[in-house]
Amino acid sequence: MYVAVKGGERAIDNAHAWLAEERRGDLNVAELSVAQIREQLALAVNRVMAEGSLYDPDLAALAIKQARGDMIEAIFLIRAYRTTLPRFGVSLPVKTEDMACDRRVSATFKDAPGGQILGPTFDYTHRLLDFALAAEGETPVVERGEARTEPTPHITEFLNKEGLIQTEVASEETPGDLTREPLELPANRPLRLQALTRGDEGFVLSMAYSTQRGYARNHAFVGELRIGKVAVEMEIPELGFAIEIGEIELTECETVNQFQGSKTEPPQFTRGYGLVFGQSERKSISMALVDRALRWKELGEDNLGAPAQDEEFVLYHSDNIQATGFLEHIKLPHYVDFQSELELIRKLRREAAENLAAGETSVQEAAE
Amino acid sequence: MSDYNFAYLDEQTKRMIRRAILKGLAIPGYQVPFASREMPMPYGWGTGGVQVSAATLTPEDTLKVIDQGADDTTNAVSIRKFFEKTAGVATTEETAQASVIQTRHRIPEEALREDQILVYQVPIPEPLRFLEPSEVETRKMHSLEEYGLMHVKLYEDIAKHGAIATSYAYPVKVEGRYVMDPSPIPKFDNPKMEMAAIQLFGAGREQRIYALPPYCQVVSLDFEDFPFEASKAEHPCDMCGAEDSYLDEVIMDDAGSRMFVCSDTDYCASRRAAGHVGAQAAALEETAA
């Protein structure tokens, strides 16, 4: 019996109602507050801010709640909200050398001015499930030290003094904005870094990992990894000078990469750079490795045909909102296209069968 | 809805999109890059079409949204609701009543007029994409009018299958210049593209807009000895008896018996209202009653 596919509207409303019910879960269990998510699932909040390209922990926490913990869905909510926000202006570049570091480690020097600060890291924890956490009522008491007041200079600057590392030339040029202009290739480095910092963590991680396993290996050392708060300053036209409008938490990674020299460049260390909102170590290290791999052209290296060297491949596939949208859209109705494929395959099969029959007759004839 | 601007997008963004549309109309078939915005529906759900519609709509417009030819498919319902909410425009299911029609995968059966705009949702705007994955390369091929690869592909189809094995998103050449992807419409719809209405194509994820001005020449690629053929299921519609409309095949029972019905729901309904009856219409109405 043919039931016309009416009732799409009611189906949608019902689906939304059911979704809301599922989101809340068992009513006997206390509801999660946005503040709880912001405070206790901070790394998830950081990821949503980084890939959503919007620094707002409260909104990110709300998005996680609304998305039932689906990170890409939460990032999508933030992106869609971000589009509607008016743009008042552009901040000055943040000064990460003035960062108030919660964590700062270098894998290249045992000690350096500013010191090594482990900070709140999982690095040396043993990954044993802590069943005490399940038993509720955790109120850790932690000893406090004195905050350091002296500056924490970038480690790569020490190498730079010796001329051992390639110098980055400062530019006054306003970097492009991926969210306001269509991506056109070849992309310059600021644009690539922009795409990487909002790119999918898993994708950027895998791309970086592939370079470590030999697909355009670039021998990276973590010259420095720092996490902390930096001030955001903006020039207000009416005032004519910059004022501080707030502070954000960032993770910055600078890699020092071995480099044998090329036709155009002498042997020296080279750099990869990662900068991500919030505490996002894995992402910023990955970003630095991929950034370095993508710089093969300017350093006169060979194109080894590795995926991480292919800027078109990396930039066009790093955005998880684009990727998931296009991937999941194949569940939308396609019956018109499928119908035309049905007609075609039937026609081709009919013709193939006819040809086969004709062929058999002619073979028989030849045998006779 | 007071929180958002008319038709959701802010005026700056709409202006940027309109510029891209005008450029597209001036260079028919050329893919104009535009700074696609993140919309509140996912990429792949018609974000390009929605942005083009948003930039095209005025408060006086009447909007029709179809998906697979039907007004009542879930995504068509969702997009129509979106514009009802954010633009407050009148909506309709009648092709003749609409001034702007957003479509996914079909061109309405009823001929469109000069005062109408047809907006297509486009997933992959690049007709050469599956022959050449790199955007840098395909843009070069378009600028050099280097379409040999496409002809070789069509030739290979014929050599292998005895026919061109493309049944939807069948490539066309516009005004003798650009090879263009008509979006995934069945090739049955290709001849309709030479029409009186303006046709706009929006690809959100791929950040491209292209356009066909009215009465623009649109030729489906073929060979002299293998001419293009607009095909459909060889049946009349079982509901309204139409012989000239594109049909969906509907599986009726476990035994696999099937019926064919117009994919254009408005076309089918208006024919039935005018008294046309298909082979199975009577039986169906009985069971329904």
Automatic annotation (TrEMBL), chain A:
The keyword Transferase applies. This is Alpha-D-ribose 1-methylphosphonate 5-triphosphate synthase subunit PhnI. It holds the Pfam family PhnI. InterPro entries: PhnI (IPR008773). Its EC number is 2.7.8.37. GO terms for biological process: organic phosphonate metabolic process. It comes from Shimia marina. One of its GO terms (molecular function) is alpha-D-ribose 1-methylphosphonate 5-triphosphate synthase activity. It is an enzyme of class 2 (transferase). The keyword Transferase applies. Keywords: Transferase.
UniProtKB/TrEMBL annotation, chain B:
It comes from the Bacteria. GO terms for molecular function: 4 iron, 4 sulfur cluster binding; alpha-D-ribose 1-methylphosphonate 5-phosphate C-P-lyase activity; metal ion binding. It catalyses: alpha-D-ribose 1-methylphosphonate 5-phosphate + AH2 + S-adenosyl-L-methionine = alpha-D-ribose 1,2-cyclic phosphate 5-phosphate + methane + 5'-deoxyadenosine + L-methionine + A + H(+). It is an enzyme of class 4 (lyase). Keywords: 4Fe-4S, Iron, Iron-sulfur, Lyase, Metal-binding, S-adenosyl-L-methionine. One of its GO terms (biological process) is organic phosphonate catabolic process. The keyword DNA repair does not apply. Its EC number is 4.7.1.1. InterPro entries: PhnJ. The keyword S-adenosyl-L-methionine applies. Catalyzes the breakage of the C-P bond in alpha-D-ribose 1-methylphosphonate 5-phosphate (PRPn) forming alpha-D-ribose. Belongs to the PhnJ family. This is Alpha-D-ribose 1-methylphosphonate 5-phosphate C-P lyase. It comes from Shimia marina. The lineage of its organism: Bacteria, Pseudomonadati, Pseudomonadota, Alphaproteobacteria, Rhodobacterales.
